[in-house]
Amino acid sequence: MNPNPDIQFRPAEEIKRYQEEQLRQALAYLQAHSKFYQRMFAEHHIDIRQIKTIEDLQQLPVTTKTDLQQYNDDFVCVGREEIIDYVTTSGTLGDPVTFVLTSGDLDRLAYNEFLSFTTAGCTRQDTLQLMTTLDRRFMAGLAYYLGARRLGMGVVRVGNGIPELQWDTIRRIHPTCGMVVPSFLIKLIEFAEKNHIDPNTCSLKKCVCIGESLRNQAFELNTLGRKIHERWPALQLYSTYASTEMQSSFTDCEHFKGGHLQPELIIVEFLDDHNRPVPEGEAGEVTITTLGVEGMPLLRFKTGDVCYFSTEPCACGRNTMRLSPLLGRKGQMIKYKGTTLYPPALFDILDNIPSVKNYVVEVYTNDLGTDEILIRIGNEHRSEELAKEIKDLFRSKVRVAPGIRFESPEYIAQVQMPPMSRKSIKFIDRR
Length: 431
Hints:
431 residues; alpha/beta; Rossmann fold; GMP Synthetase, Chain A, domain 3; 2 domains; six-stranded mixed β-sheet; four-stranded antiparallel β-sheet; 23% strand
């Protein structure tokens, strides 16, 4: 690929023309190399020469997670000798899928995170403390390392967990930026308070956060974001959203009005349940077409993630589409007593209850065939009165009250992080 970092600052019409040229190249590549898309084009009598604009994509079928699971190998576009790296998806909504990356894909991944870090205001003068894993077939940690290297930042590969090692690293090496799951910052703060460390006087001044929302749909800090900010106000919190399938990310700029699209790397549509585009101001499923991917490119892939989008120019000077914090995952939507809920709405309530040490939200099908919610709460001082308080809080916030079960915080911590997991688990779907 030929990097064009200035395209994000060009007028919207120029960005669209640029993306449509990249789209034509992506379609030609799929036609030449992808067994899955060759079959799709033939079965649906699609002439890719007729797909010239982003709007023309609506003539094509969508690709689903089920397609990836059932025909994984048919998506691979290169020979085994060209594959440099193998990763798998987390399998949150089903069986994990194997993705392969070529040398060019790793360069593209590095460039994506270079753009992501620069969007968040990082420079080569920064030193990054990487608090995510580089192993366990995980794409993200490798991407962050490659991106930081491309930018010229120093990197300290600490990995996830172990607050004592994180603080020892901060003391020894003086990193200025962290790459972290935001709820882990709470554990860092708690360790600091117990050990008489003032986090506000340390070298760490910003964190780019993954995996959990920090802001609500109005772009104000949510409960988790406020909890971190209140106890570590010197730390600036940026969010980045990505997935293995898209091999790209959407990151906050200094104005915190949503994650910026990188038009060189991805086209995004927002679709309803019938695969029709939703207008700006309505929530839609993030549906992506990758640009410049060699190993496993995707066309109109429905991610399962639901959010809003904005096309207004940003005060930072970028004219790219921006994504809101995620409402939730379509496959995790809960229909409970006539109310539609997504897990992040439940997490936000629970994060705001001081007596809740930790928790897991479970959803299962009851005897009537409808959704039932059980919240397993880590708390040493359980009582009927506390359960009633929690249920009343849920009724006031989302109009319905789930079932509550108290367990030890230590046991909940084990449930949240099983031995083979790469991410902390807060939601378990047993339907």
